Amino acid sequence: MTDFAALIRPDRDEPARTIHLLDKAAAPGWIKAQAGSRRALVEAAGFDGSAGQLLVLPGKDGAEQLDVLLGVTDPGNLTPWCLAGAADKLPPGAYRLADGAQPGLAALGWLLAQHRFERYKSKPAEPKGERVLLSREPARVDEAVRVAGATALVRELVDTPAGDLGPAELEQAVRDLADECGGTLTVTKGDELERGFPMVSAVGGAAVPSRAPRMIELEWGRPDAPRLAVIGKGVCFDSGGLDLKPASGMRLMKKDMGGAAHALALARLIVAERWPVRLHLLIPAVENAVAGGAFRPGDVLQSRAGTRVEIDNTDAEGRLILGDALTRAGEEKPALIVDFATLTGAARVALGPDLPATFVNDEGFAGELLAASKEVHDPLWRMPLWDGYDEMLKSDLADMVNSADGPFAGSITAALFLRRFVPEGTPWAHLDTFAWRPAPRPGRPKGGEALGLRAVHGALKARFVV
What we know:
GO terms for molecular function: aminopeptidase activity. The protein is of the alpha/beta class.
């Protein structure tokens, strides 16, 4: 993992290169104020303040320190990613923003632009050296380092091939956190899993013994503090089961544990920031494989809650394991539940890769999530828990089906399925997130991505801490 703390530090007036943030409105005036040779260099380079433009100039009057011009959309309202392109391209050294400006949210992009996941490269890229950002906002520096670490954790877990990251490896990642924070770890496997979490057991029943299913639980914090349940879908690889996915649909299914990665990253932030909560992290970890022990279309599974679910589609497995996890979380009477899951292709059809479909059963909490989303520039899009579609989950044989028979409202019916396992009156949010970036952007390479993590972190922090 990248040492993000080495890439940003408090500004103690040390020598540093200056980054001038200019938009199209301010650039002409700044250029006009420069001396002849510097002005000529800027004009020859065609710099006009367009967002993302980068130009390195020699210092004024022969000074050794360089000046950097960076085009941004709005110098007074920096986004998390407006410094990312510069951080990736500038030469090593220390930098500060001009005119007393502070990086604020943009520190995150500066840090993540310098993160590399090269575990599988036989010849990793030559290190460019550290580009260090100076800031006079110590609290923001610390938070940026923590959030960058959480984001990188999601990316690395999702990017790791399924052959190297199965249920056992997810368990170890949670065990590492428990060891660090002194939390209590409970792992349920084998016969106990079949009795206590029957849908988790059924979904993972076809996996080889070394990738056996399990329910992973971590509790941390004062027992008398408000309980906060954080749940993540941990399908370490999804073949689709007997309703086998096509090759094109299976190619990225190493990322089907992206919900678990988000939940673990959020738990790490909560622990690091010492929130006054009783954290309950739950990760049902399985591989949805194909073998003689696979559950079948038409099977009826009993859930932990006691309800019986008829299987219409074995590729709608994530909601099954989350149903058992939600039931377990509800038994402890939490003040709030949030779950992350790479749950439906329907959410991606509706909203594309960048927007997690967000379902919330509480209007106050929904407003808090959307407000935090805007504040930290981590977009969410609220979707309806439309009661009229509940009938799509009706089964003639059992209490419900796991997948509606038809092409409509797939992400909504999946959320409605989950809602049946949430205790009545308990605020709950479900994020159907993609956990993947299909094309690179500055500070955000192609591959695993944290989508919705910062928004949920901000909303929960405002509710439980601030």
